[in-house]
Each structure stands twice: as C-alpha cells, then as structure tokens.
Amino acid sequence: MTLALTLVAVALAVLLLLLYLEGGRRFSLGQMEELEGRIHPVDLDAFRNLTDPQEEDYLRANLRPGQFRSIQRERCRSALDYIRNSAHNAAFLMRMGEAATRSEDPRVAHAGRQLVDAALRLRAYAMLSSLQLYARMAVPGARLSYGKLADNYQHLSGLATQLAHMQHPAGGTRFSALL
Fold first, then answer.
1. Phi/psi of residue 22, each to 5°?
2. Is residue 29 left, alpha or beta, with left meaning phi > 0 and alpha meaning psi from -120 to 50?
3. Structure pTM?
4. Distances (CA, A) of 154 to 1, 75, 151, 159
5. Domain coordinates of the chain in residue numbers?
6. What is the pLDDT of residues 40-78, one digit of tens each?
7. For every residue of 33-67, which 3-state class applies, written as one string?
C-alpha cells in the first residue's frame, strides 16, 4: 500500500513538473507593444544581493539571532518573487522561441531553438531554487546554493534580445529594456 501511494505521489510530482515547465504555451506572440504587459521586471543586481553569501554573513554577524532569522525569511520571500518573475518571463520567452522556430529564416529558427532550450533550463532552475528557498525559510540558518539562476536569466535575456533584433530591428532595443 505504501509503495502504491509513493508511486502515485511521484507520478503527480512529475506531472506538476511537466506542467510547470510547459507553462509558456498559453502565451501568444503578437506585436512588440503587447510585451510590456506580459513581461515582469527582474532586477538581477537586487536578486544577487538577496542571495549573496557574503551579505548573509554580514547580517549574521551584525544582527541578533532572532533578528537575523526574521530578516533572512523576508529576504527569502523577496528572492522568491524574483524567481517567480524569472520563471514567468521564461515561459513567455519560451513561447516566443517556439514561434521563431517556425521561421523561414534559418538564423531566426536556430535562435528560437536556443531560446526555447535556455527558457526550459531556467524554468527548471527556478523550480529547484524555489524549493531551496522554501526550505531556507523553514531553517533560516541553513546554507543553500541557488545555482546560477541570475546568470541563466541574464543569458536567456541576451538570447531573447538577439532574437528580437533579428525579427524586429526597430523594436529590439525596447524589448531588451523590458527584461
């Protein structure tokens, strides 16, 4: 009985993971003006600061333990917001990349495939980082690595900007400012 429940739980977890990773399919790519309402802002410098181990060490050394735990939980909640926005943007950019893969221009199709791959990778990292942050909120003193989520988002943004420049030379610069 326990084995059956475990298998059902694992199957549900895999299904949820697949649904999460494919979340970008609900978006449709239209005019560049539509992007402003769909892209959520991500301040990578602020996210890096929230997840910087040296900043955490500084806070740990200069705050009382109760204050540190409270501040660290708040920092984790803020980092989760950045991760959610990154995952949301990756879902949208994945849809944009899928549309580009159908292009007649082989350079645009290749850039679209790269964008889809990078977006899928970022969404997987975002899910893992979210789980780590939830664990960290439960145990604020735990030392956990968030991988290179910010670097992956920066890479994804660069690929998306490159694709936007290929498809819409006039609006590509405006697009990069949105990310």
1. -95, 15
2. beta
3. 0.75
4. 46, 21, 5, 9
5. 79-179
6. 888 989 998 888 888 989 999 999 999 998 998 899 899
7. HHHHHHCCCCCHHHHHHHCCHHHHHHHHHHCCHHH
